[in-house]
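writing this on my phone so excuse typos. first protein, seq and then structure
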Amino acid sequence: MEITVTAIKADIGSIGGHLKPSQALLAQVETTIAKAGRGLIVDHFIGHTGDDVAILMTHKRGTKSEDVHRLAWDAFQTGTEVAKKQGLYGAGQDLLKDAFSGNVRGLGPAVAEITFEERANEPFLLFTADKTEPGAYNLPLYLAFADPMYNAGLILSPAVGAGFSFTVMDVACTEDDRIVELSTPEETYSLAALLRDNGRFVVESIHSRSDGGQAVACSTTRLRNIAGKYVGKDDPIMLIRTQKNFPAAGEILAPYEIGHLVAGFMRGSHTGPLMPVTAGTGVSFFDGPPIVSCLAFSVHEGTLTEPVDAFDQPYWDWVRNRIAQKAHDIRAQGFSGAAMLPYTDLEYSGIKEIMEKLEKRFRIRP
């Protein structure tokens, strides 16, 4: 049976700042999806990470379905109305256009979709991140799909060892989708050369070279490229199919113990470690740290099982403690050096305005 899994996420309002959406907002999104989705989608799940609401849907309409995307857009709109009535901060923040125009790509929300023929056993993972950028997934994906130090299947399983095809997008190109396809293991070093630059090159999808099946779909939305100014961090969403010709769930999760440094944190203008958290976790310290949650599902004929929280296990408590120390260490630098993003990547214009004023005061000493 061919099924499409669609995950769409947006920040449409939060309590107390950028902390967490209200229960009333989440309930409204759930109600809209449940009622308006009858006869359109097979199943759905509503969750949140930080202040972002995520809508997961299964259906038979294929990727970029106007009806399915409109359903999510309408749910975010009704949720925004609740946010406005409650006085939540940033009501409708990620809804950057006034009207729906075929699908939500380019309208603000982050989107990840995969269409596939269901296997007898069809497990997948839903990753949702907050206070960071799409390139935050680059390193974990590289390690999970191209490095045998993290993916034992590359040397233990012939199907996994056949390698993978990575589609990488240049998100600095705003006129068109500028992409390149690289195959591992042959082009592993070339892939690494691109993925080191999280702010410009982002993994969009990954396919198995064993059977051609799609394993990964990532959102690549850059909000500032749509709005022309800072309106919030991009907060990416990602779907990953697991097992058989793809890495095992544990191989995909393992790289998140690193707590690698990514862009985001307060005002989207700092550097901080990506912390794997339990689902439904809000943000707090310095509007961070950058966080990622992961829910595991199985799907059969489009019907989802209940989710399993992949980071809700004692080992990850130890990881979180280590990453908290890492966050403390870099925050101790305040605005200095690597603690704040480079001048060209700052999401707020305040420093640029200061520099423009100071530029006029510089002089050449005789």
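second protein below, same order as before
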Amino acid sequence: MPEPSAKPTEAGVTMKPGLRDLFWMTVGAAIFLAIILLALHFQNQQNPAAQLAFKAKRIELVERMRLGLASASEAEKSAVMAVTDEDSRTYADQARAATATVEQGRRDLENLLSPGGTEDERDDLAQFSKAFAEFQRIDKELLNLAVRNTNLKAYSLAFGPAAEALREMDDALGRVTAAGGAAGADSLKVTQLADGARIAALRLMTLLPPHIAEESDQKMDELEAAMTKEDQAVRRSLDGLTALVKQSDRGDLAAATSSFGRFTEIRTQIIKLSRENTNVRSLTISLNQKRKVMLICQDNLAAIEQAIQAEPIAGLSNHAPMMPR
């Protein structure tokens, strides 16, 4: 049988598809395919159940992050207020663990929002990430200070060994005075010098707690200058007693001098610890810088959740979805 030939036109001329026709046919097929794929994608995106589940998952992440922030803050404050190094370290570790949980939630949420979130949600998360980075920086500094407890250690020395050393000095000077020390006018002078040493030592002691509690370096300088004056007054009185006290009573005077020397050594340790000021500094950071950045982080998370809640779901009301249990 003869092969079929191209259909002739009315003029008897055969028409074959040209390159231009093939090009437009290919373009048309591609557009048609893209429309089909887009329609399928759109249909999937409009699936109410899938949208609701996606919304609930993101909201659950945000809620976990908010809870983690609150837990980290509570543990951090416990670390600052703890009275022992062991307790401070325990609470500090809890704070770090809670912060790490928030960071993991932030990453998970970022991964969810990259392909499926709105521009507002991504912007709010970027704001949170910036604030949370500052939160982590402050937290690291604060917790490193809190676990050292230098102010608490200074108080312990001041009201323990230091106070005991001055009590022993006071008792020894009391024995010197009771023994008469010297005869006549010199006896009165001994009493005056002993009382002068005891009073100056007590004044010096009263300057230690304010120094430990002080935040300002300048005021600590002023307190230390006052301590130096009282220290010199004690030493002058003890030197004066050495020239007046009878040989038989010099054992008690030596004991008083030794006790004051031990107090001076302890006082040096107290001032060094007080200067580090870790408890005061950590508490100040907690109540000021940390509190402010904490509020910013919580506001950012609230904005993210609000943006997620505001997403419309086809076929459903705009009410917030119930959180999965």
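Residues 150-276 form a domain with the de novo design (two linked rop proteins) fold (CATH 1.20.1440). thats all i got for now
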